[in-house]
Design goal:
Order of helices and strands: EEHHEEEEEEEEEEEEEHH
Strand content: 35-45%
Distance between the termini: 40 Å
Number of strands: 15
Largest sheet: 7 strands, antiparallel
Number of helices: 4
Length: about 240
């Protein structure tokens, strides 16, 4: 089993923790009708899933050693909290955390067990391999920029623009899977990254795929750019504010 370094990316501060990156088996895809049916399930009033955005933000910011606090407020007509059904019987919470001029960031919480008094709430981190192809540093990112979950495919996508023009940044595609050691989590399927902000917008090069390592010929990230890429990712919260 391949062990990788997973550092806790600090948004606005620097902090690292180690973890193991494991490959899981995909949870069976569910139909749109099944997701719609589960979304209509009654959520107990004492469940965290019933809490308001302000209550979620207070809960998130109060966590011990929290280095990625939330400060965004939902706009009119938006509750700021969405219950996402990753399987027909498994809900998670998507909470608005940051908002900038051209992108918003969200934190996700897995809600396990019997909803209500018996539930367990755990923050979700997203694995991202930053740096040169073949020499990437894996980090666990708590903030998912422009996150969107597709219930039909069971995939979640994130897009982080380093500039509003979209000429540089990173993007990930994740699938909800189940692993004997790691449990259920969002497994990275593909990662794209462009560190050079050259004024040319377009598709960013693929730097990682679950099927196998991306070809260095297809990536604009070179070994010399590895440290630059890590520095760029540490400024995600700053980019989100623009």
């Amino acid at each position: 089993m391949k062990t990788v370094l997973r550092s806790l990316l600090v948004l606005g501060a620097v902090g690292m923790t180690a973890c193991t990156g494991l490959t899981g088996s995909t949870v069976d895809d569910s139909s749109s009708s099944a997701m719609a049916e589960s979304s209509a399930m009654t959520i107990p009033a004492d469940s965290m899933l019933s809490k308001s955005h302000a209550e979620w933000v207070a809960y998130h910011n109060a966590q011990e050693n929290q280095k990625s606090p939330c400060d965004a407020e939902p706009v009119s007509g938006d509750t700021g909290v969405e219950v996402v059904w990753v399987t027909p019987l498994h809900p998670i919470a998507k909470v608005l955390c940051t908002r900038g001029a051209y992108q918003s960031g969200y934190v996700f919480y897995d809600v396990k067990g019997t909803l209500g008094a018996g539930e367990q709430v755990e923050e979700i981190f997203f694995d991202m391999p930053f740096g040169a192809v073949g020499a990437q540093n894996w980090v666990g990112v708590p903030l998912a920029m422009e996150a969107n979950f597709d219930a039909t495919t069971g995939t979640l996508t994130t897009v982080t623009k380093d500039r509003g023009t979209g000429d540089c940044g990173s993007a990930g595609t994740y699938k909800w899977v189940s692993d004997a050691d790691r449990g259920e989590y969002f497994e990275l399927q593909e990662f794209r990254q462009k560190t050079e902000c050259d004024g040319v917008a377009g598709d960013w090069p693929v730097t990682y795929t679950k099927a196998g390592p991306a070809s260095s010929a297809d990536a604009s990230v070179t070994e010399d750019a590895s440290s630059e890429a890590m520095s760029s990712t540490a400024e995600i919260s700053s980019a989100a504010a623009h």
